[in-house]
Amino acid sequence: MTEPGALRRRILVVEDEYVIAMDLALELEELGFEVVGPAGSVSEALALVDRGDRLDGAILDVNLRNERVYPVADALAARGVRFVFASGYDARLMPDAYADVPRCGKPIDRAVIVRFLGREAPAG
């Protein structure tokens, strides 16, 4: 739990499957993060990134209705925002430009969230 008046870390969630997006958002909120989104498409996610609001991290589903999330990854990287890909894709199928980006399978569990975003998790 965050202390009163403390800024909660803002995590962008990009996921096109409603149930998965809502479950992930709930998990993040239970861990003390503030959820931005969820965004269900590349254009929706880019609009959230382009607003210029503070983002401390992001979880990106790679495949959004047969569109790849890479433009969102590029926009986040340009802003210096850490992100993780959530995907069942084999690492060999990912473009070389994203070879060093952490990946996790779906469904994402709490332990994975803590491992990838734990350094940003609020104390308490």
Describe the structure.
The protein is α/β, with parallel strands linked by helices and 124 residues long. It has a single domain, classed as Rossmann fold, CATH 3.40.50. 31% of the residues lie in helices and 21% in strands. The protein contains 4 helices and 7 strands; from the N terminus they run βαβαβββαββα. Strands 2-1-3-6-7 form a 5-stranded parallel β-sheet, with helices on both faces. Strands 4-5 form a two-stranded antiparallel ribbon. Helix 1 links the parallel strand 1 and strand 2 (34-39). Helix 2 (42-50) packs parallel to helix 3 (70-78). It starts with 9 loop residues before the first strand and ends in a 7-residue tail after the last helix.
SSE arrangement:
Layout: E1 10-14, H1 18-30, E2 34-39, H2 42-50, E3 57-61, E4 63-64, E5 67-68, H3 70-78, E6 83-86, E7 103-104, H4 110-117
Parallel strand pairs: 1-2, 1-3, 3-6, 6-7
Antiparallel strand pairs: 4-5
Query: How are the strands of the largest sheet arranged?
Result: 2-1-3-6-7
**How many β-strands, per DSSP?**
7
Shape: globular
Please give the alpha-carbon distance between the first and last residues: 5 Å
Tally of DSSP helical segments: 4
What is the quaternary state of this protein? single chain
CATH topology: Rossmann fold
- The CATH C-level name is Alpha Beta
**What is the level-2 CATH architecture name?**
3-Layer(aba) Sandwich
Main pleated-sheet profile: 5 strands, parallel
Poorly predicted ranges: 120-124
Rounded to the nearest angstrom, the radius of gyration is 14 Å
Q: Percentage of helical residues? A: 25-40%
